[in-house]
Amino acid sequence: MDVKIEQSWKTRLEPEFEKPYFTELVNFVKEEYTSKQIFPPAKQIFNAFNFCSFDDCKVVILGQDPYHGPGQANGLCFSVNDGIRIPPSLVNIFKEIHDDLGLPVPKTGNLERWAKQGVLLLNATLTVQSGLAGSHQNKGWERFTDAVIKCISDEKEHVVFLLWGRYAQDKGTIINAAKHYVLKSKHPSPMSANGGGWFGNGHFSKANAYLESNGAEPIDW
Questions:
Q1: Which of 55, 65, 99, 220 is catalytic?
Q2: What is the pLDDT of residues 27-51, one digit of tens each?
Q3: Which one of 40, 94, 129, 217 is separated from 136 by 20 to 30 angstroms, measured CA to CA?
């Protein structure tokens, strides 16, 4: 099956595309798009990879599911399309960036600008049915995105991994923390962030300091 994904990723992930589980996943996802309303639009499923090549990747942010409301999901975790109301978790992310770095809060929740600087905005599950959070979990996406994380961990050095919440932290157990910088905190969603542990984590300044100390350009958050 021909997966439309940026070439540096395709070269490394080709073995996954040939495995039976991935064929089953593709068949499931195709059927879902045919019979139901699924997000993001099919052409945007692999946006995280297409905006941030393997070679350029220097920060990884792990999300769980795409947004399941109309017009929200664009294939990048935590990101929404221009003109869409900024979701609560992303509001808290922007607040922390403001407190951490003194940057103004953006008027759009579209994070393509991060991805183009080398931030892989990776959801564990890359598709979802409208209005049904978690509806495409345990269909094979998690195995695929685990392979992505392992590929980055094994083949690159000095990547910053931002793991927010237990789900991301559990998924991050395959990261080699001896050669990468792993930052953990509570999830930015209001349910967890307002209880403490998100605000004041300083992840954005810490990530940039680490990148600069290893000769990489910092991210303009």
A1: 65
A2: 999 999 999 999 999 999 999 999 9
A3: 94
